[in-house]
Amino acid sequence: MRQISIALMGFGNVGKAFAKLLLRKQAILKSDFDLEIIVTGIATGSHGSAINSAGVNLNRALELIESGYPLTTLCENGQNFNGEAFINACSAEFLVESTPLNPFDGQPALSYLKSALNRGKHIVSANKGPVVFGYNELSVLAEKRNKAYFFESAVMDGAPIFSLFREALPAVEIRAFSGILNSCTNYLLDLMANGYSFDDAVLKGQQIGITETDPSADIDGWDASIKVAALSTVLFGIPITPQQVDRTGIRDITAEMIKDATENGEKWKLACSAQRQGNHLLSAVVKPQRVNAQSALYNINGTSSYVVFETDVLPGLGIVETDPGPETTAYGMFADILNIIKKFSYV
Amino acid sequence: MRQISIALMGFGNVGKAFAKLLLRKQAILKSDFDLEIIVTGIATGSHGSAINSAGVNLNRALELIESGYPLTTLCENGQNFNGEAFINACSAEFLVESTPLNPFDGQPALSYLKSALNRGKHIVSANKGPVVFGYNELSVLAEKRNKAYFFESAVMDGAPIFSLFREALPAVEIRAFSGILNSCTNYLLDLMANGYSFDDAVLKGQQIGITETDPSADIDGWDASIKVAALSTVLFGIPITPQQVDRTGIRDITAEMIKDATENGEKWKLACSAQRQGNHLLSAVVKPQRVNAQSALYNINGTSSYVVFETDVLPGLGIVETDPGPETTAYGMFADILNIIKKFSYV
Q1: Which of A73, A134, A181, B7 could form a disulfide with B41 if both were Cys (CB 3.0 to 4.6 A apart)?
Q2: Residue B264, class by beta-carbon neighbours within 10 Å (0-12 exposed, 13-18 middle, 19+ buried)?
Q3: Contact criterion met (CB < 8 Å) for A313 and B168
Q4: What is the 8-class DSSP label of residue B297?
Q5: From the CA atom positions of chain A, what is the Rg in Å?
Q6: Cβ(A185)–Cβ(A193) under 8 Å?
Q7: Are B191 and B250 in contact (CB under 8 A)?
Q8: A219, A192 in Cβ contact below 8 A?
């Protein structure tokens, strides 16, 4: 049986869900893949770190974090390592990163991923920042080091977008994409259609953890723009920044506009789209759109998301993800690891 | 540059679209895959066959067929070969099959595919029949011969279904699926919602080539049942026949029922679904369903199709295919070839 060692950076909701998924999938990894994945290190944002070359006990790590304790007691030498020091100290074949997004320059995650590649680790990241601000650099570096940089969970959680085209659909030319890429605003617009005021919707979103304390990243369309930029960068091969996306958020959607739409059997959605011609980007737009029941966007409800691709061989290929959560993001990272193992013929 | 030889069995709309796609993709195969694919033989249903070990001229073959001539003039020895004789006579690394469906036992395609595997060829098939009636046998034989049996286009044309789970989503447990898998009935129900009588809708469907001369395979839900059986067989690992699907077609959907649905903002759809628990199939159903605008089935219009999978890691993953045609089916076969080449590390 092949043993694979991974280091986890980031142990928030996604990192914890990943650890639980790994525990749950141990049996199938063994039976179907002849594989064991051990976690040789975990670095958290505010609960210290643990490094153990024989494998950190994941059940204990989850218990400690959930009881508010630091991980340091699980560390083989009792020391705490953060950031670069953690990457240097932790011996692992993969770095699996789910640290918070920095929407302005992707740091410090981008530097961590570079360091990990330079130390000969494959990198798996759920982080949109490094995709948007470092995709080309990281890809070139990964190629040079004969390692992989996979990031399925950066857009639409664990729904297969990047892997779909990379693994299943060879020799396709993607000409355009459109859809709903931000769960939070979709949820808020649904609440408003059900009579909530904008402020009450935001409050409710915050209560159930869909909306951030500062909701502007979602509401002003930044999160959607980052995702449009990531898709353009990777799938079109045309790198753009979120700032280059023609962006309008949902702040100006009034209760009256929503009411009028509802009365006419229509809905407001925060629609994303981009179009290319060859290597030229024709448009990249995030903008509220009023749609009727015939639109594919109409019944993308709550926190679900949707993207449809127009390609030279398939006129319309849509992907719908319903009810996402940290578990689906965790699966995207898990799938990335197995797909890297397949690509490099480890098993 | 690696040269791959393929033999085409079936040169109807799909086979011809495949030949055109191959011609169009030659440049990208060369530049991105360092690959040339040559067609060393074509067997048609009623226009003879052509075998040429240096490669049949595809442009000429398409011209001949479109002018109503047999292919025999392109054959290196002027002979005609059919069925098994063609497979034996044509030297090729792949058999690419798109002969007509036999919904009762998958023959003779099933035998052709077995012969091809036994002669050491990879097999790519757009045919649902062999999947439903021979998936296990063909898979075991392929494994034994160290060859592949891929059949992406058997369900939802070229939209990635089988390849999605095989290539992109490792270690997933699929618990259920549902959707709209038959384009013809979906198109007919749309026409009826627009005021066509059942008979007029069938006539119109026949005029534009969506509906067969004998429309019963679609209308009575057989085509949808074959697809449900194929998905259960491959994705659940639970082989069932179309006869085992709880099947109701659209014959009893009256103009009044359609009118009543339309007046209430609803639509009739021929819904497919199946559910499992472990290795036990809980249900496999094809049945008309009246859906409202909140349903994911509601805006699957015309000849589009849709399937949503419920898995242990992604609660809902939907695939939508819009505007399919012979070209999309052809792409599924083309993708199968490239995915087999990747799997066997030819390039």
Answers
A1: B7
A2: exposed
A3: no
A4: T
A5: 21
A6: no
A7: no
A8: no
pLDDT digits (tens, 9 = 90+) for A175-218: 999 999 999 999 999 999 999 999 999 999 999 888 888 889 99
Spatial contact of A54 and A16, defined as CB atoms under 8 Å apart: no
> Is the backbone peptide bond immediately before B315 cis, with ω within 30 degrees of 0?
no
pLDDT for A212: 82
User: Please, are residues B290 and B261 in contact by the beta-carbon 8 Å criterion?
Assistant: yes
| Amino acid identity for residue A207 in this structure | Q
Q: How far is CA A69 from CA A58, A78, B51, in A?
A: 14, 14, 73
Closest Cβ opposite residue A308 in set B21, B169, B320: B320
pLDDT in tens, B64-122: 999 999 999 998 888 889 899 999 999 999 999 999 999 999 999 999 999 999 999 99
Interatomic CA distance for residues A278 and A291, integer angstroms: 29
Q: Which of B223, B227, B196, B228 is closest to B212 using CA atoms?
A: B223
CB atoms within 10 A of CB A146: 9
Q: Which residue is it, tokens 């998958």?
A: B106
Half-sphere exposure of A264 (CA within 13 A, CB side): 13
Q: What is the pLDDT of residue A58?
A: 98
The pair of structure tokens assigned to A231 is: 């898709």
Cβ of A320 within 8 Å of Cβ of B319? The answer is yes
**Which contiguous run of DSSP H or E holds residue B336?**
helix B326-343
If 0-12 CB within 10 Å is exposed, 13-18 middle and 19+ buried, where does residue A51 land?
buried
Contact A315 B322 (CB under 8 A): yes
The answer regarding whether domain A174-323 maps to CATH 3.40.50.1100 reads: no
Domain limits, chain B: 2-158+327-343, 174-323
> Is residue A278 helix, strand or coil?
coil
Residues B201/B192, Cβ–Cβ less than 8 Å: yes
**B78-87 confidence digits (pLDDT tens):** 888 989 999 9
Give the pairing of strands B316-322 and A2-9. unpaired
Question: What's B2-158+327-343's CATH class?
Answer: alpha beta
Q: Which of A25, A293, A335 sits opposite B298 (nearest CB)?
A: A293
Contacts 24+ apart (CB under 8 A), A134-138: A134/A106, A134/A110, A135/A230, A135/A233, A135/A234, A135/A239, A136/A233, A136/A239, A138/A110, A138/A113, A138/A114
Subunit contact B296:A320, Cβ cutoff 8 A? yes
Helix (H, G, I), strand (E, B) or coil at A8: strand
Say whether pLDDT at B266 is over 60. yes
pLDDT for B347 beyond 60: no
What confidence tens digit (pLDDT) does each residue in A107-152 have? 999 999 999 999 999 999 999 999 999 999 999 999 999 999 999 9
Structure token digits, residue A207: 């209560």
Q: Rounded distance, CA A170 to CA A165, Å?
A: 7
Angle, nearest 10°, between helix axes B222-231 and B128-145?
Answer: 20
The C-alpha angle with vertex A275 and arms to A272 and A279, in degrees rounded to 5, equals: 135
